[in-house]
Amino acid sequence: MEFLALIELTTPAMLAGLGLLSLPLIAHLMNRHARRRIVFPTLQFLRKSVATQSKLYRLRRWILLALRSLTVALIVMAFSRPVWLDADSDQLSSSDRAAVVLLIDTSASTAQQTDGVSLIHSLRVSADRILDSLKMETDVANIVYADAKPSATFPRLSPNFPVMREELSKIEATYERADMQGAIALAGEMLAKHEGERRLMILSDLQQTNWQDVVQSGDAGKSLPPNTRVTVVDVEEAPTENISLSDPHFYPSQPLIGQRVQLVVHVRNSSKRQKQVRIDVTVDAVEVSNQTVTLAAGEHRDVFFETILDGDGDHEILFEIPGDSLSVDNRAYLVVRTRNRLPVVIVSDDDHNEIGTASYFLSRALAPHDNSLNDRYEIRHFTSQSLVNAELSDAVAVFVAYLGSLTDRSARGLISYVEKGGGVLFFCGEGNVQKNLELLKRNTENTGILPWQPGPRRNFAKLDDALFITAGKWQSQLLREFDEQSQIAISQIRFQKSWSARLPAADAEVLLMFSDDSPALAMRRLGAGRFLLANFSPSLDSSDLAKYGAFVALIQIIAKQLRPADNSVRENVVGEIYQHPVRLPLEISGGNLVASNPEEKEIAITTSVEADQLALRIHQTEIPGFYRFKLKGKTIARASFNVDHREGDLSRIDKNTLLKSFDGEGTTADIQSTTGWEPMLNLRGRPLWGWFLVAAMCVVGIELACLGIWKR
After folding, report:
1. Which domains does the chain have, with CATH numbers?
2. How far apart are CA 555 and CA 559, in angstroms?
3. Aerotolerance regulator N-terminal domain: from which residue to which, for each copy (predicted)?
């Protein structure tokens, strides 16, 4: 009796099936009273008929009845799901409710395969075993999916295990990086609403890059309610070898049609041995190049390709390697936009059509032919007021001439452009120069933006007092293309007006010097970009500079050198919100504008009006590849999305280090292996139903063996 007291039935209602024991008994009784008429010609058959009525034959029938009854009883007991209450179980009573949340990692790395079986499949099987350990109509549970935006099967804990099993069968690895901290916080919110036993079961590949944020924060336990027990399920898959592609980019950042473009992709060997891999490159679905590289164990580096892109607009670039254990990172996608001319912005409050103004000479220097066939630059004009809503992100350079008064918002727009890699040349001529520069300085108080601080305005009325450029840093990156003849020419130009200057900033670079040793042109870095401050203006009332060809050469060279050398456009990652970097004309908003994913399925987009232009956003991207924006069936813009590069590194985090990050108020953590027959979750004892089924099969085997022997 003490032995039976250690056994509890999870589904006692199934014991009603013991009524099926009557079936073998009825069959036995019917067979016992059956009479058969035998016609026999010889005494031999008579002896056989007598033998069937012997005591031994009747004993065999009783043995078969016992075996069949035992088989039925064992099967019924298995369906009643008995458990053994041993010392390792949590000793919950039948009426105690346990709350269990299964946190399942569905990040891209869980698609890795070993011997043809994906790791996400192993996680599904383990999760199903955990649900088997719960008691129907008593315990509650939920499933939290750890991806870029963690979600759950139900809004709260639920006893609806059949639906959870159905959802488990549908779980597949996503192309996203998992937000583990968000998933743990979501699980903690659900468990906090339960009074009683709380369990968090974490099923993950334990990828180091995915769990690093949790470990570094060290306070994962604070996201869980007190007295929560955390179990990390160790799938214990064999280490897999993987080669990944990531971070596709190109040089120069804004290529012209017919210009040679350098395409770059980062390749990583996450294996523990040397690997050789071939990388194929296609442009607009046509293969243009390939390269075979050899990588040592753990090596990663950029691989370069060169091509010429013809045609104006977006080009789809695909880098690809052969399949391996993790196929989601075997491709890298890139969109390169080519154009006829490069956009340059001139910000000025004077009339660019009025001869003698600074913006007039700047326009003529940047676009001397005034046509799209021969000029390299496309000029966009903004005033100090319209600069508030100006789109500067695709401009190769910004030139600031005469200004009335900048606003805070305009100043922040210029600073943001510089910080993201842009270049600005600010001319100190007429207008509120000191006030505008002070506004820029105030908005970059922590870092600083001005190469030198202007003092009082200087006016040299006498020609003999005028300043000349007498020295230059001609070998610097910005001025190295300024030839010797142009250097001589610019040294002979008179400057009638300038500003007194204080000592340049310590991190500033003075590029040109006046004859009185004051800076004529200086540069200072801010973020990824550069800010140039010129102590002169090209307007006729400030200098004779714009009358000479040396001015055109200087502006053309500076515009070329201010153009970002690298591609500062951020790589788009699957699962993140996307905003198209180029705004579209406002008039297309009334048309049939749609977006499609790489599978040519329409996806939701949102539009907004910014600076009298249309901004496009995609709030949910689920697969890598090329996304297309179409207007009346015609593609007007493209975007590329890639799997997060960290998903390609399959190295696992140290388990003990991970467990320490869950230390908290009453919170305990342990590791559970998926191997063996042991239950994944031992709340009320060890399940015995499997053993009952095995016993039933053994009894059936014994019955068949007896029948085989007796027939002999």
Report:
1. 2-85+691-711 (no CATH), 98-239+650-684 (3.40.50.410), 243-339 (2.60.40.10), 363-397+414-562 (3.40.50.880), 578-641 (2.60.40)
2. 6
3. 8-82
